[in-house]
Backbone:
């Protein structure tokens, strides 16, 4: 709404592009921030190898 009232009065495409860029950036930030826990993977997979991984396949 703010972008439309400030940028959109004169440059409608600029308001839409700015809104799209900000939305994509915010989505990327949320995915990277919430998607990777700080403790990954050591408590669950010591040495980055899951416990079910067969020993004859090198990891």
Residues:
């Amino acid at each position: 709404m703010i972008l439309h009232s400030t940028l959109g009065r004169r440059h409608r495409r600029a308001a839409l592009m700015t809104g799209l860029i900000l939305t994509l950036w915010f989505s990327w930030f949320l995915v990277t921030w919430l998607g990777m826990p700080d403790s990954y993977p050591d408590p669950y997979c010591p040495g980055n190898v899951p416990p079910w991984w067969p020993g004859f396949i090198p990891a």
